[in-house]
# Entry
Amino acid sequence: MRGFEERNAYFDRLCNTPGLMWLGQNTNHFDPHPAVVQAIMDAVARGDYHAYAPPAGFEALRRLIVEDAGVPDACAFVTDGAVQALYSVCRHVCQTGRDFVTTDPSWAWPMHFARQAGARVVELPIYNAEQQYKLTPAQLRAAVGPDTTAIYLVDPNNPLGTCHTEDEIREIAAIARSVDAFLIHDATYFHFADAFTPAYRFYPEKTIMTYSFSKWLGLAGMRLGAVIANPDIIERLATAPPNNLGSNVLSQRAAIAGLQTKADWFPDVRRRQRRNQASVAEAAARVPGLRLPVHPSQANLVIVETVDAGVKPEALVAAYQKHGIMIRQGTYHTKRFGDRFVKISLTVPESWADRFCELLPKMVDQARREPHASALY
# Structure
């Protein structure tokens, strides 16, 4: 069986596992605000799905997105998920033989997109306590130059959960400007940060933000995201988008309702997610060798280091899957550091997080005894 067939079959098994507890994909599994569900039902009842949506998204949604992202003077283009947004951006801005600079760890797929476009991918290691598990401006400055066409920054970082300060973002934006590079600011997790600064404020000429509805609103299976940039960049992206017939109408109606009611319900999502983080931290502290290098995380996830406990991340993932819990091995994000940690997603019901914590000592022991795991993705 080919690699993509194996990968698809793997996730098909997960999706068809009754009662599976999804603690590995960073998606929001809390019940949405009733207005979100009602918006979907109303759209179905009206038959809205019979017509294509506007190619850049409903105007109401586009306005709400830029306001929510803190850049009301920018322009939004709605996409079929943030992954499609990143694909489109990479295909438009990457150039053959020029550098696409990012961090390690980061989110892996944009690197594939950049390589497909012919770019050289430069990964800067940030898995280091001395630099607070973040890209430093000095590190970036030393890595860029005339050959740099794009800098890709996931902020807050997936999988580490670190978030840059306003001063750091200001300096990173200045460095991007100094070499005339695009700054791709992947803001997928900004809703969970205590403080987030859009790089667009300091470098509107060539900053491109990507925005997701999977993590904070929980529309992962409905595929909705956006690109945010100045109108000239959006005009360029709009000339050849992956989908020129508009994104899912039902998803867009749900997103509008979610943004309109966000102040009423999202603070409780943040509270419950932080409660789950604290529970995992306490459980890990009781198992010798486990530790959380970043806590509290500024995203809806934490990483748990397993290397000092003598546990391979893949073995721990496999052990939990036997108990109906899906977590993620570090190698999904980084080959260089992936043997050190697992990632736990925590916008999930408290009972799921508590079950993870309850099983942790037993799963660590089992992973030590059964270190070999089948292929994971």
In short: The domain at 4-32+265-370 is CATH 3.90.1150.10 (Aspartate Aminotransferase, domain 1). The chain has two domains: 4-32+265-370, 34-262. The mean pLDDT is 97.
